[in-house]
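Researcher: Quick one. two chains, 660 residues in total.
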Amino acid sequence: MGRLINDGYDVVEEMLEGYTKVHSDYVRFSEESDRVIVSKVMSEEPRVRIILGGGAGHEPMFLGYVGKDFADAAVIGNVNTSPSPEPCYISVKEVDSGKGCLYLYGNYAGDVLNFDMGAEMAADEGIRVESVSVKDDVYSSTNFEDRRGVAGDLIVFKTAAAAAAKGYDLDKVVQLTEKANRNTFSLGVALSSATLPVTGEAIFEMNEGDMEVGMGLHGEPGIERKKLKPANEVIDEILNHLLERSPIKEGDETLVMINGLGSLPLMDQYICYRRVDQVLEEKGIIIDRSLVGNYATSMDMIGMSVTLVKLDNELRELLAASCDTPYFKQ
Amino acid sequence: MGRLINDGYDVVEEMLEGYTKVHSDYVRFSEESDRVIVSKVMSEEPRVRIILGGGAGHEPMFLGYVGKDFADAAVIGNVNTSPSPEPCYISVKEVDSGKGCLYLYGNYAGDVLNFDMGAEMAADEGIRVESVSVKDDVYSSTNFEDRRGVAGDLIVFKTAAAAAAKGYDLDKVVQLTEKANRNTFSLGVALSSATLPVTGEAIFEMNEGDMEVGMGLHGEPGIERKKLKPANEVIDEILNHLLERSPIKEGDETLVMINGLGSLPLMDQYICYRRVDQVLEEKGIIIDRSLVGNYATSMDMIGMSVTLVKLDNELRELLAASCDTPYFKQ
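Model:
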């Protein structure tokens, strides 16, 4: 694998500098922190503000969803590392309009700790900040509270943003966001490690021709490592696990997302989607909507995940609400 | 490198089946050919119809730009292989509204031959079809007519579609499309080969840690193969070649596109953009607009290209015109 960067220690600053120049219609840097990206197209009416964050290296995840009627700010850490509390706090000061803010991030210990500290700093100034950590990776734990957040981040974030855009208060936004969180189930497969910018080396070793179902976004161990199989068999295995660990059953309406982890061609992602569609149709599970593409990556990791969202009328409507950001427009 | 597919001979059919299911709001298969994707949101008023095409393996290129006020159809060949004349002809029958059609493709011998034959078959039925082949790869020849088409396809296609959407006749659409073609200049760098689905192997050998500036979308030879350098130095070298082989000079207004070839992280693409921005600012060349992302890939090739478009008021307006397709919305 190869990367096209300068000093590996400068990747986040240089990326953010490039990003804010390209998308200057949508975003700006906070004047207080070069790790806080703020929407320039934020609603003028007071609303619950939506703040996303986490480590860099998942692009377009986090910063790509800051814009109109989606996230109001994103807080970006180093590669695969939570942002520190200070920028989390600064992001609140940048966007709060008196209705409170909601932090949204994947459920990783570092993010929980640092965003919690940011929320405490904001509370000291009388600003209420709630947090929802996304927990969609069904293999990471049998206990919901211990699950990691992976591609389902997008689903939970979008639900929260749409609820905020409807003018709901912070309690109601949190309640709807948690509903999306509990109804979103993901499982991925990796064929390679990402390349770490600082070392130029793989984060972990993986033989060519191997795969690991259940691997996390940062290379967290999955179910077992074995020889790569044809796409249809891989999808069948993923769906078996997903349906076993979710309440989704015949007659349910779902949103399906295929998320590419960075280096898996779109061609392969649509081939994977085709099989998901076949299997769910056989099982009488209804696909109301589908998304395919690189929504939350692990830089140049080869792999993908399948996310199933159990829809009801409320979630369907929130997920379909219009928004306009560099990486999500509808 | 690894791919997640079934039989390598079935990748195009399976991908198109998945694609048309996911994006059924935008596209359908032609009833006459499973290699012709037709817009379901085509303008109802008679217009010049825009038909894109070429080999598969460049996704989202070609099919991803079929939708509203962009392409009306796409004709898809096998991987890295032109479609045959029959589907080219069928696409015309599907979309013509009496104002004629424009075929748009990269300048490769197979595409020229097969689309020309499709146009002759249409002419036999009294339908006028013109063709513009994109020629933006400045290193591929010093002679404009012999240049290959790479990421600049997007620029030329968008210009044509916007001109058709304004209701211009076929002659005027062709004239504006050729103007975009002559004002678009690209040069890329590759760090690896793509993996061919049928063999599961690289199309050509490349040592890890090497790069080749000027390599084509299918691995056509570039300027020289040498050790990978830091991103800023690579961009400086690309811009030196690009500016030497284009008329762009101080005071000119440009559109800049960084196109990822498939497996280069967005992080790296924005780091590359940052340097392009710095260098053009130093040289007094104005960036009016910029695009960064995977617009025309070579499946899982690691690499990127820089495209500079010399703008005038007419091109700026056409490139900014609104459109709505799965992979290009504005």
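Chain B has a mean pLDDT of 97.
Researcher: Thanks, that's what I needed.
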